[in-house]
């Protein structure tokens, strides 16, 4: 087997959920969209089945896969339904659809539903992100229309924050105020908090929180560092399979972006951009080998990359290098390449996934 793997610590996953649950109070959805942010939605759901209050996915097909795997309990489709067939699936499989546009309201009104069945709908309000959702002044009318359809038994109001990870601005508090004004006096549950709001905006707490990125151990507010209460769930690591020396002036890898200034010992590692490690990672990007930080050198290739072993005399072929995990925060790598931790985690592929805990 090629020595490249993503180790998924399910005990860390449960720990991180517990942190959010204790902080937020009420109930918390564990968000498993995009294959559990790249960690594997089904094994993560199975690990949380006895712990989580509910789960959220991006769209109905993701929810169907969880139901077919035996996952029970509340299950929310954040994009709602794209057509009537998906709405019927929500009825059959007890998936809660988000409603964020008029066409989805009309689908519910046309739904052929047995008299003893009803939907639990989450009504999305656009309080300032301006992506999807009903305008605040339309909420009362849509709420009434859903209830009068005779198809909806319960409504939970929700919104999504655009800048909750930035504590220095007032936009989130304004969104909270718009949400409260739009829902005042209306019957139903409340859900405002994403991961960042669970951590940093207590005024946003409601009946349901929605824990996404922090479930996987990433600090949602300061993504370039580790949060002391969160544990990395994924460790991306690969084996050093060969070594070589560069002499001063020798160039390394495509584009000759690294030129040795001293005699340099290089370790070749079985990981590349086809596995999800970013090609744009520059020389100097942190790597963890044998209990110490070292650095990436040269341009990342499709199937391999190179690390500097010059100052690690005991390290060599057969050792494993960590590229993110408990010692190297994934957010640190994301910052080095100008992206976010979400993208890196979701892009991991082709390596072996090993689940523990």
Summarize this, please?
With 357 residues, the chain is an alpha/beta fold. 28% of the residues lie in helices and 24% in strands. Helix 4 runs parallel beside helix 5.
Describe the protein's architecture and organization:
- With 357 residues, this protein is α/β, with parallel strands linked by helices.
- The chain has eleven helices and 18 strands.
- Strands 1, 10, 13, 14, 15, 16, 17 and 18 form an eight-stranded mixed β-sheet that branches.
- Strand 6, helix 7 and strand 7 (152-158) form a beta-alpha-beta unit.
- The radius of gyration is 23 Å and the shape is elongated.
- The two termini are 23 Å apart.
- The mean pLDDT is 97.
H/I helix tally: 11
CA radius of gyration is: 23 Å
Please state the overall shape, judged from the principal axes of the Cα atoms. Answer: elongated
Order of helices and strands: EHEHHEHEHEHEHEHEHEEEEEEEEEHHE
Q: What kind of sheet is the major sheet?
A: 8 strands, mixed
Assembly state of the chains shown = single chain
| Low-confidence regions | none
Helix/strand class? alpha/beta
N-C termini distance: 23 Å
Q: What is the mean predicted local confidence, pLDDT? A: 97
Q: What is the percentage of strand-forming residues?
A: 15-25%
For the secondary structure, the number of strands is: 18
Please give the share of residues in helix.
25-40%
């Amino acid at each position: 087997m090629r020595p490249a793997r993503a180790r998924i610590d399910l005990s860390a996953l449960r720990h991180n959920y517990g942190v959010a649950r204790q902080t937020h109070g009420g109930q918390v959805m564990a968000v498993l969209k995009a294959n559990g942010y790249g960690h594997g939605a089904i094994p993560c759901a199975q690990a949380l089945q006895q712990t989580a209050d509910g789960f959220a996915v991006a769209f109905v097909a993701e929810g169907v896969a969880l139901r077919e795997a035996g996952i029970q309990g509340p299950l929310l489709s954040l994009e709602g339904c794209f057509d009537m067939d998906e709405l019927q699936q929500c009825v059959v499989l007890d998936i809660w659809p988000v409603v964020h546009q008029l066409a989805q309201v009309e689908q519910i009104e046309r739904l052929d539903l047995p008299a003893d069945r009803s939907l639990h709908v989450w009504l999305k309000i656009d309080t300032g992100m301006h992506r999807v959702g009903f305008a605040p002044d339309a909420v009362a009318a849509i709420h009434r229309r859903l209830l009068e359809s005779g198809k909806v038994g319960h409504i939970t109001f929700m919104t999504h924050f655009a800048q909750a990870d930035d504590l220095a601005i007032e936009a989130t508090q304004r969104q909270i105020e718009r949400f409260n004004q739009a829902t005042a006096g209306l019957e139903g549950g409340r859900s405002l908090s994403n991961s960042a709001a669970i951590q940093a905006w207590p005024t946003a707490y409601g009946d349901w929180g929605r824990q996404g990125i922090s479930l996987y151990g990433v600090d949602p507010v300061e993504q370039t560092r580790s949060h002391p209460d969160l544990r990395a769930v994924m460790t991306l690591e690969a084996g050093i399979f060969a070594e070589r020396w560069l002499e001063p002036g020798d160039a390394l890898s495509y584009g000759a972006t690294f030129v040795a200034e001293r005699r340099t010992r290089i370790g070749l590692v079985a990981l590349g951009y086809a596995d999800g490690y970013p090609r744009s990672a520059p020389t100097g990007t942190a790597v963890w080998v044998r209990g110490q930080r070292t650095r990436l050198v040269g341009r990342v290739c499709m199937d391999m990359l190179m690390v500097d072993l010059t100052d690690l005399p005991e390290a060599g072929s057969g050792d494993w290098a960590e590229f993110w995990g408990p010692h190297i925060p994934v957010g640190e790598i994301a910052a080095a390449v100008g992206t976010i931790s979400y993208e890196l985690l979701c892009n991991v592929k082709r390596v072996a996934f090993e689940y523990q805990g």
